[in-house]
Amino acid sequence: MKNIRKAEIQDLSQLAELFDQYRVFYHKDSNIPAAENFLKERIENKDSEIFVAESEGELVGFVQLYPLFSSTRMKRYWLLNDLYVNENYRGKGFSKELIEESKKLAKSTNACGVLLETGKNNDIGNKLYPSCGFELYDSVNFYEWTNK
Q1: Helix (H, G, I), strand (E, B) or coil at 3
Q2: pLDDT digits (tens, 9 = 90+) for 16-54
Q3: Nearest to 59 by CA among 40, 84, 79, 41
Q4: What stretch of H or E contains 82?
Q5: What H or E segment, with its residue span, contains residue 58?
Q6: This prediction's pTM
Q7: Which helix (H) or strand (E) holds 23?
């Protein structure tokens, strides 16, 4: 049975494991204690909204969104920064359900939308996001400055 819900502090242990898998997927070193600490701070400080996907009492995926604001629209945006489903549960609709929960958050907070970024070579994501109603916004250039 699938269940999508807001993450709670009691979820930290399982959520940190998933978050660590997510970071390793993006070529970062495994560090579960640091992942747990990072997520604990996000939850306690209400810096982000985290929703989890549950199957038979086990956390199998999550989405994390951060608040942004659009000055021209004078409204909040939500940045869908992290989306991950354990590889054993992929292809079963968990990602789409987590995205739908993200869209519900945007509606309930009267936000103007949900933004996300993914790599051009992320074939799965580049099929998933349009299938969930996201439009590729290619009329701007995205730049990054990195503080080294």
Answers
A1: strand
A2: 999 999 999 999 999 999 999 999 999 999 999 999 999
A3: 84
A4: strand 75-85
A5: strand 58-70
A6: 0.93
A7: helix 12-25
Q: Is the pLDDT of residue 130 over 80?
A: yes
Q: CB–CB of 107/65 below 8 Å?
A: no
Rounded Cα gap, residues 114 and 80, in angstroms: 6
Query: Would you say 85 and 94 are in contact if contact means Cβ atoms under 8 Å apart?
Result: yes
> How buried is 112 (Cβ within 10 angstroms: 0-12 exposed, 13-18 middle, 19+ buried)?
middle
CA geometry: angle at 11 spanning 8 and 14, to 5°? 155
Counting Cβ atoms within 10 Å, is residue 113 exposed (0-12), middle (13-18) or buried (19+)? middle
Q: Which of 115, 101, 20 is nearest to 54 (CA)?
A: 101
67-87 residue pLDDT tens: 999 999 999 999 999 999 999
